[in-house]
Amino acid sequence: MTMLEIRDLGKRFGGLDAVKDVSLDVEAGQITAVIGPNGAGKSTLFNLVHGFYRPTAGTISFKGEDITHSSPHRTVAGGIARTFQTTNLFDDSTLLENVLAGRIVRSKSNVFDAVFHTPRHRRESSINEDKAMEALEFCGVAEYRHDLASNVPQEVQKRTAVAMALATEPELLLLDEPAGGIPEEETVDFGNLIRSLPQRGVSVLLVEHKMTMIMGLADTILVLDHGQKLALGAPAEIQSNPDVIRAYLGSTAQEEN
Amino acid sequence: MRLTRAALMPAEDPTIMTLFIQQLFNGLALGGVYCLAAIGLTLVFGVLRIPNLAHGALYMLGAYITYFFLTTVGVPYIAAIGIAAIMLFIVGVGLERLVFHPLRNSPHTHHMIAAVGAMFFFQALAQAIWGADFRRMDTPITGELRILGAEISAQRIVIIVTAVIVLALLALFIKRSIHGQTIEAIEQDRVGASLVGINPSMVSMLTLGLSALLATIAAGLVAPINLLSPTMGDALNLKVFAIIILGGLGSLPGAIVGGFALAIAETMTATYISSAVGEAVAFIVLVAVLAIKPNGLFTKAVQR
Amino acid sequence: MNPMKNPRIIGTIAVIILLGLTPLAFAQENYAMRVITVGMCAAIAVYGLNIILGFTGQLNLAQGGFFGIGAYGVGLLTTDYDWSFWAAFVVSVIGTAVIGYLCGLIALRTKDEYFAIFTMAIGFIIFLVISRWEPVTHAHSGVNNVKFPEGGGLIDFESPVAMFYLVFAILLICVYTTYAIRRSSVGRTLLTIRTSEDLADAIGVRVGFSKQLAFAASAVFGGVGGGLYATVVGFIGPDAASIDKTFEFLMFILVGGMGTVAGPLLGSMIVTFLFELFQDFQAYRFIVLGPIIVALVIFAPRGIVGYLGGFVDRRNRRRRVEEARGADDDLDSTGASTSGGTGDHRARNVADGTESGAGRTGGTPSPEETK
């Protein structure tokens, strides 16, 4: 089933087309990757899907519904979560509190429930705690749950960001350079975490630079160049695509060295 | 603060035209005052990224210190304004160093609360020294000029002329002088500017001092028309904020255009509708702008 | 942690009990009773400010205005229109809620500085209306002879003690509500907005809506405090709606601690007490208060409860972090095994004072504490 349908998407800033005529199908249960050099429009694409930016052209639909002009909190409520390139956590809170924040969008109890300590409130609090713990454990950072977000290593922060996103119970997770800043030794572990997401019912759309990671992870790869689609296909196809090789794999290999 | 209709020569009957001309000049004079006050505030926002809620209080202090030098010490009017302006410049620098600088990395609510604290301090000071009652400041500038059939008080002419001169000097200063250029540089790109050796601290101090100086000139010019009181800065404060939000936080041209626009709107509605509406115009504008475009009308891409 | 052992809860309850017992000490001294009761009215308004400023991180400079609306609502309705206190009070509070909601419609879309400036304008407008609209509000003459609450034959509210407990009861509701909000997802939502609106938005928080609700709540608390204030003092003037009042509230919350449960109460009572102590210097009050507020914001923005609570939280966190780590020796820098009874843990952690693990106990506060 096609989870996310992007059709002829475009975003223009002033005179510049950051993204132009991009079409993509993200299939359920799969890991789809978007690659391309810096400035190719990858983060812009994410921002468009997530709702931070409004497209100037094209449409986006998620599970059949048009989300082209949805705002971030509506897309999250609808089942799309995202992480950011620069880790975005609530610095002054513990990891557990951060992930609990992810549960807000799924919490229905309001002030009255809180004040009167209604059964719904108690039930939800318990569910939230459980789900938050589960997300933390799934991402392998449960032991840091009482540490302040600003006090843990970069990799733990990145995993927590994923846990926070998972806490919103998404069906699609947008990962924006999830392995950025993570030492080489850890990327394998991180890759495993990402690979385990579809089994959990979370389809993945990710942006990454690290080619080895992508090749081992992705089911489908979209290559962007100057905001436009250069190639789309399975890793093997992409690797052997002469345009891609010429333009990107060569330079990315250099980046990685 | 409201400029009321100037006294008319008894022998004249106001025609529609003369009334209009009169109010136009009232509006222009008021606009000059608002501009001078607004420019400083918008610059502070552009450079420090802070809404200086104490700006109105600086304006008020400027008026009182001018008053002090004019009446108590007996210095000529222009000189009194000048001395007061310099003193307030120092006060502005002090405010930056003691209040805003320590809070530069704190949440935005903190420096606003601190500004409120400074505002109260200045008001309490003025009240303690000069009392809470209204005071008159008499200007040596008397007489009227006759323009297109209308009698315009000389004071207002002086205000308009002075405002234009000061604005021109300021523009020159910002565009031509090194110091002025640093202000512009920091406004546009704080990080970049510091990379080329511009000291943000110096620029912050300069800007805040300048804003106090300009506000003082405005206050000194208009004080003879209105009365002085420790709370005279309160209404002005909000109006000036309305102006710079209207014109765009950090935008000089916006402050100038906004200042004149609001002043003329105020004066005209006060004359032709009612004085109550005239007073309310600024607030209506403020609320309307925030309701429609919550981040101001012409937001310059002020970098955060 | 067992609530009964939580120092914060114990502390808060202690303060409440102490406060509740003051009539015993001051029963015969009407003036003292009135001062304390007025202080509690202010505390109620400060609890409102706590929600919008302490939890949500938005500076509401109109709180004095809402206090004034509450006061004038009760004042005018009971005098000029001869309503009963209770009817006037209810209508007054509803009125404040409506006005707060309407202002909140704009507030919900404005950010940071714009929000503060907007509320400053609102507060100013309210003050202008109250102080100038002579026919309705009596302008500077004020309102006299505000009615006492009707006791239905059971309670005589003309007695200061009865009045005290009425306000005290409502104050308790405020404290409890704040506590309930704090530990629920509602509180969590507000705190995310305080820390980072953008991130909150990105994880699905309805930022605008939450801000609007918080603002409306703040207005309601302000109105309740104001309405009670009117009946406690019996006469009110435009100063009840002035920026001075807002300033007072800011003072109270800074001293007590923003974003805490006990802070507003503690701050209000302590500062009210200090004001009384230095009564003779009334005229020079603001000369000193201005710099004090600046100093507080620079050096002690978290307030008394904030710092005390922060201390408690750090201790707790050290313990919890170790427990969460389990018996993982790599991360333990105290040199000894981290397993063992909780009692040992705490003693060791507090005693050696060193940082555990990877330098955990930095000065950054968690939302359990304040900003």
UniProtKB/TrEMBL annotation, chain B:
Signal peptide stretch: none
Residues annotated as transmembrane: 20-45, 52-70, 76-100, 112-132, 152-174, 205-228, 240-265, 272-292
Record Pfam families: BPD_transp_2 (PF02653)
Compartment(s): Cell membrane
Entry keyword set: Amino-acid transport, Cell membrane, Membrane, Transmembrane, Transmembrane helix, Transport
Alphabetized InterPro entries for the sequence: ABC_transp_permease, BCAA_transport_permease
UniProt feature coiled coil, ranges: none
Mode of membrane association: Multi-pass membrane protein
Origin superkingdom: Bacteria
Family to which this protein belongs: Belongs to the binding-protein-dependent transport system permease family. LivHM subfamily.
Name recorded for this polypeptide: Branched-chain amino acid ABC transporter permease
